[in-house]
Design brief:
single chain; 960 residues; mainly beta; Immunoglobulin-like; 6 domains; 10-stranded parallel β-sheet; 10-stranded mixed β-sheet; 4 helices; 3% helix
Length: 960
């Protein structure tokens, strides 16, 4: 149904006049199809070319390019963006024929962004039709910032200008331009259904000599000199226009013009308060016909509406042959013209208000009277108003036609709105006509079946046989064709079983790195997405979310878990009929590794059996989501033999050890310890004497940051200066270094961010220590093993990589052979493992039978198999490596341990070196073999006891 148009009151219309904005006076360019013939496209907002042929895929860039080649029967479609006008003067010089006119159209295509705008340049009109015939210009918008001429018709005939919009701001100074001008050498020109805003001197101006010019059904805000001005033109028809006249004459004919002035509405607006130097207090008449034209002009069925306060000056309604008339009655009595003219109307003249005298009171036979109004609505019979006009068709006076108001009840919905297919429904309407017209309705049920018809109050029935979501549409029609529609989008005929649901989860990744505690849940689109009402995802940690988004496409949701662990998430999907289905997935929230450039964090003395509390901030462990830190410990100045135990503050101290020390020796070891961002790490001295400990952070394990995964390697030797492995075949002199290539060899990619090595010094000629540093940097590196003269010493280190190389520096005064064995690496390659810290636990002690079930040392050249999965918080499957501290207490001889995955060949590497009578302890990241078992091989010549303390595990988790 055409919508009722609002009226405009005094204040709002005054504002409109000032602002130059005519709200509610038109809907802009309408949808239209091109005329028969070819179509040329213009669109400068996409890839375009004036050298082409103006296809839709490669349109012209300028309107002029199309105007230069258009042929009879062609339509030029001008597309674009209202924010990007065509700033070019366009001159049309090519003509059509009576059977095949040329059309320039700005009507929107379905895919258009908005209406195209032609901007009037300062130098002349935006559009000139020069010496042409059979040309139509329709649905174009023009902007005029210069208040000059906008559209000019010169020397042309059989031209139609329809549905133009001339948009500009009201000038504050005197101007001279014309919005639409027809020169004296033109004939058979129609200006129809256009909207012209205040901004020029004249709205429509016809110059002397023109013939058969029709100005009809336009809405015009009167310009400074006149709304419609016809001078010296023959057979001019000014019919059915609405002209707002705050400043000057609404319509004038002079200079010996002949023609008809009928069905027009001149609106007096403003109370004088909005007048400016460019729009003086009005004294001009609303309708003016000069003495030399009065005998040649017929005036009738015109109307004057008043929208001014009682304090405003009286406005002359008519000037006819030099005589002024203040009312339609005086005009009729004095001239014999205007037998059906009316005035005294106070209702706004946009769309006439109900019962207005403007309704059904025009002359349907007036020359130029159109069958539709300015907005394209049909001329209809208002059943509430008696017809007082002439002829058939029931036109209202002015450019806008009052339409019937059809009301469709909000309760006119399908009943029931949902159910399982086959679903029977009924539908009716209680629609009413404001005019009391007899109504009929039809219902399109949206399933391809034919429409059902009825009369208001009588229901129609329908059965949906197939499941689906259907839109029903009621169309109510009255006899004159006026109609209204109401759609109901949502009749649901459900499937016999509810839609299945599924959910999967994987950690968030970017560039190969992972946030191991941030889960990205994916819910695929179900088979019948329209049937879903809502979905809730319970993350398994006490929180849940309602999933937003369209069920017709896969839905994703992310969730950051607060701590590592295994969580079962449950998706509950409820359909429109209340039926719920669920799906579950498991997510393993874990940690990823952030390599830290080693640096001194703290050095403290710990009393015998004392505890040193290290805040998380001291260890740089207070960053987002950090659950564990990898530390390097260096002990010195021990007063008695003993070991340090590290554990999370506030937890029970475990019976484990991270590093062993004794008087007179400096010891080093790396270890992993759980930490909380607000808590501390406790370091317990299990000795009967004080010891000094230096702590440095070498890595963080976080569940809340993008970081690296771990890739355990089958242990392999990278450097041995005794044999030449790695390129150097001689002891490294004291104070000298050797560079080891790691990246790009033995499965370690060149892009690896950090590497885990076991480094060993042997055949040492003097006491000393080893430093391992990142190649190509000035970073201090990490401390490797300390040794005494002749001792073989091993330490495991984690070191960042820059160019794939590390540097081993002999800090001794004498030479030593150096050995480096690959344990694993951290990086972004797919397939890496995530870390799960555990509460420290002793899982092997041969002295007590822990882990083996019997008290027995590992024999010389003997192997102990240790199962490390399925207990102490370590998963039974998916484990790739375990993080251990290995200790050999008070061995009876010297040697070393080799830790490696069960089921593989024993590598020739060092994992932990020990010296007779000296307890040795260090970290060991060990790749896990078949069945979750690792092998510990005693390469020494005497049996030894071995302890293994579990710190965490690395796992490859399946996505759920």
């Amino acid at each position: 149904m055409p919508r009722p148009r609002p009226t405009i009151g005094l204040l709002s219309l005054a504002v409109i006049v000032v602002a130059g904005v005519m709200g509610g006076l038109g809907d802009g360019p309408a949808m239209a199809e091109p005329a028969a013939g070819g179509t040329l496209y213009v669109d400068h907002d996409i890839a375009c070319s004036d050298a082409g042929t103006g296809t839709q895929s490669l349109p012209f860039c300028t309107v002029q390019a199309a105007a230069d080649v258009v042929e009879p029967g062609d339509t030029v479609r001008i597309l674009g963006n209202s924010l990007s006008p065509y700033s070019e003067p366009v001159t049309v010089t090519r003509s059509g024929t009576s059977d095949e006119p040329i059309t320039f159209s700005g009507a929107l295509l379905p895919q258009s962004r908005s209406a195209a705008v032609l901007a009037a340049p300062a130098s002349g009109p935006a559009l000139t039709l020069k010496g042409v015939h059979d040309v139509r210009v329709e649905s174009l918008t023009f902007s005029d910032a210069h208040h000059g001429d906008v559209v000019a018709v010169t020397g042309s005939g059989h031209v139609t200008l329809d549905r133009l919009t001339v948009s500009n701001s009201a000038p504050t100074v005197a101007v001279t331009g014309t919005a639409v001008g027809v020169d004296g050498t033109s004939s058979d020109v129609t200006v129809s259904r256009s909207a012209i805003y205040a901004g020029t001197a004249y709205g429509v101006r016809v110059e002397p000599g023109a013939a058969r010019v029709t100005v009809t059904t336009d809405v015009i805000l009167t310009q400074q000199h006149g709304g419609i001005a016809v001078s010296g033109a023959t057979d001019a028809h000014v019919t059915g226009n609405t002209v707002f006249a705050p400043c000057a004459t609404a319509i004038s004919l002079d200079g010996g013009s002949s023609g008809v002035l009928e069905n027009n509405v001149a609106a007096v607006v403003g109370d004088g308060s909005t007048q400016t130097s460019a729009c003086q207090a009005p004294t001009a008449p609303l309708f003016a016909v000069s003495a030399d034209s009065a005998s040649r002009v017929t005036a009738d069925y015109n109307a004057v509406t008043h929208q001014q306060t009682s304090s405003a000056p009286a406005r002359t309604e008519y000037s006819w042959a030099g005589t002024s008339y203040s009312s339609s009655g005086a005009f009729r009595d004095g001239t014999g013209q205007g037998a059906h003219d009316i005035d005294g109307i106070t209702a706004p003249p946009t769309t006439p208000s109900e019962h207005s005298p403007l309704i059904d009171s025009a002359d349907a036979t007036a020359p130029g009277e159109l069958g539709t109004d300015q907005e394209g609505h049909a001329r209809v019979d208002d059943l509430l108003v008696a017809d007082t006009g002439n002829g058939t068709g029931h036109p209202d006076r002015g450019a806008l036609e009052r339409q019937d108001t059809l009301t469709v009840s909000a309760a006119d919905d399908p009943t029931p709105p949902k159910g399982l297919a086959p679903l029977g429904i009924s539908m009716k309407t209680d629609a009413t006509s404001a005019w009391g017209a007899a109504l009929a309705y039809s219902v399109d049920f949206g399933d391809g079946s034919g429409p059902a018809t009825g009369t208001p109050g009588t229901p129609v029935a329908h059965t949906y046989t197939a499941p689906g979501l259907y839109t029903t549409r009621i169309t109510v029609t009255e006899p004159d064709g006026t109609s209204a529609e109401k759609s109901y989008a949502g009749v649901a005929a459900g499937t016999a079983t509810p839609p299945a649901t599924a959910v999967s989860a994987a950690p968030e990744t970017s560039g190969g790195q992972v946030v191991a505690g941030l889960a990205r849940f994916t819910v695929p689109a179900p088979a019948d997405p329209w049937e879903i009402a809502y979905r809730t995802l319970d993350y398994g940690d006490g929180t849940r979310d309602n999933l937003a988004g369209d069920a017709q496409v896969p839905t994703q949701s992310t969730h950051q878990y607060a701590a590592p662990g295994t969580y079962t998430a449950t998706l509950t999907q409820t359909d429109l009929f209340g039926r719920a289905t669920t799906a579950k997935t498991t997510f393993h929230a874990a940690d990823a590794f952030i390599a830290v450039t080693p640096q001194h964090d703290t050095t403290k003395a710990i009393a015998a059996h004392g505890v040193l509390k290290l805040p998380a901030a001291t260890l740089r462990a207070d960053s987002n989501g950090t659950d564990a830190v990898q530390l390097q410990l260096v002990t010195s100045g021990a007063k008695a033999s003993g070991a340090l135990t590290l554990y999370t503050h506030g937890t029970t101290r475990p019976g484990t050890s991270a590093i062993a020390f004794e008087p007179g020796r400096t010891a080093t070891a790396e270890t992993t310890v759980k930490v909380t961002p607000t808590g501390s790490v406790d370091v317990y001295n299990g000795s009967s004497g004080a010891v000094t400990v230096e702590v440095a952070t070498v890595g963080l394990q976080s569940h809340g940051q993008y970081a690296d995964t771990y890739h355990p390697a089958t242990p392999v030797r990278l450097l041995d200066t005794r044999t030449g492995t790695g390129g150097a075949k001689s002891p490294v002199a004291g104070g000298h270094s050797v560079t080891v290539s790691v990246g790009g060899t033995h499965g370690v990619p060149a892009s690896a961010d950090a590497v885990v090595l076991n480094v060993t010094a042997t055949t040492t000629k003097a006491s000393g220590s080893l430093t391992v540093a990142t190649h190509g940097t000035t970073d201090p590196g990490v401390t490797g093993p300390f040794w005494t003269t002749g001792q073989t010493a091993t330490a495991q280190v984690v070191i960042p990589l820059r160019d794939g190389k590390v540097v081993l520096h002999n800090q001794s005064k004498a030479s030593a052979n150096l050995v480096a064995d690959l344990v694993g690496w951290y990086g972004t390659t797919a397939g890496g493992s995530e870390f799960l810290p555990v509460t420290p636990a002793r899982i092997l002690d041969t002295r007590t039978g822990t882990g083996t079930g019997k008290v027995a040392r590992i024999a010389a050249h003997g192997t102990l198999k240790l199962k490390v999965t399925g207990a102490h918080g370590v998963p039974a499957t998916g484990v790739t490596a375990v993080d251990l501290n290995l200790t050999v207490p008070s061995p009876a001889g010297s040697g070393y341990l080799v830790a490696y995955p069960d089921g593989t060949a024993r590598p020739g590497v060092y994992s932990l070196s020990f010296t007779k009578a000296h307890t040795a302890a260090d970290r060991a990241l060990v790749k896990v073999g078949s069945g979750g078992v690792i092998d510990l091989y005693n390469a020494g010549t005497v049996p030894v006891d071995v302890c293994a303390d579990l710190l965490g595990d690395y796992d490859v988790f399946p996505t759920g």
